[in-house]
Amino acid sequence: MSLSVELSGLQVAQTDLDTIGNNIANVSTPGFKDSTPNFTDVYATSLAGAAGASQGLGAAANSLSQLFTEGTIAQTGNPLDVAIDGSGFFQVQTGTGIAYSRDGSMQLNAGGFLTNQTGALIMGYAAPASGSTATASGPLQTIQINQSNIAPTATSNLSMDLNLPSSDPLINTTTTPFSVTNANSYNQSTTSTIFDSLGGSHTLTTFFTQVSGSGSPPDWQTHWEVSNSNGTMVASGTGAKLVFSTSGALTAGSGTINVSGLANGADPLAITQTFTGTTLSSLPFGVNSLGNNGAPGGQFSGLQIGSNGNVIAQYTNGATKIMGTIALANFVNPQGLAATTNNNWLSTVASGNPVTNAPGTGILGTLQSGALEGSNVDLSTQLVDLIVAQQAYQANVQGINVDQQDVQKLLTLQ
Question: Which of 261, 292, 323 corresponds to the end of one domain?
Answer without folding.
Answer: 292
